[in-house]
Amino acid sequence: MFNFSGTRPNNLGVKDGKLAPCPETPNCVSSQSEAPQSKIDPLPAVSIGDLKNVVSNMEGTTIVEETDNYLYAEFKTKLMGYVDDVEFYFDSDAKVVQVRSASRLGKSDLGVNRKRIEEIRAQL
C-alpha cells in the first residue's frame, strides 16, 4: 500500500479575509487567485452546514476543521492515498463562499481539484 499523503500544510485558514494563495504548480484552484490556471469562481452563498453535508458525502473525505464561516476538509484518493486540502470560507462581504483546493504533493493534479469544486457546485 502506497502512502502519498504528505504533511498537512501549516499555512491554511483565513487571514485578513483571504485563503492561502495557490503555489506556482498547476495542482491548485482558488476563487481568490488572479492567475488564469488556478482561478475558479466562488461558490454561491450557502451555509457552512449545507456545504459540510455535501462534502461529507463525497468519497475519501475527512472534515478537519469547522467554524460558522470556515470549513477545511481533506480528500484522500483510494488508490495511491494522495491528499488534497480543500477549504471553504463564507465571505459575508462578497456574499459568496470562497474556495481553495490544492494537492499536497506532485506538480499536476490532472484537473482533479477543479473537477471536485465543480462537482460540489453542482450538488449545491
Write up what this structure looks like.
This protein is an alpha+beta fold and 124 residues long. It has helices at 48-56, 112-123; strands at residues 28-30, 43-44, 61-66, 70-76, 83-91, 96-103. The chain has a single domain, classed as TATA-Binding Protein, CATH 3.30.310. Strands 1, 2, 3, 4, 5 and 6 form a six-stranded antiparallel sheet that branches. Strand 5 (83-91) and strand 6 form a beta hairpin. The longest helix is centred in the last third of the chain and has 12 residues, at 112-123. The N and C termini lie far apart (34 Å).
The dominant shape is globular
Segments where pLDDT lies below 50 for 5+ residues?
none
User: What's the CATH architecture name?
Assistant: 2-Layer Sandwich
Radius of gyration: 13 Å
Mean pLDDT: 93
Distance between the first and last residues' Cα = 34 Å
Summed up, the domain count is 1
Per DSSP, the total helix count is 2
- Name the CATH class: Alpha Beta
Largest sheet: 6 strands, antiparallel
The oligomeric state is: single chain
CATH topology heading:
TATA-Binding Protein
**Proportion in β-strands:** 25-35%
What is the tally of beta strands?
A: 6
Percent in helix: 10-25%
Structural class: alpha+beta
User: What order do the helices and strands follow?
Assistant: EEHEEEEH
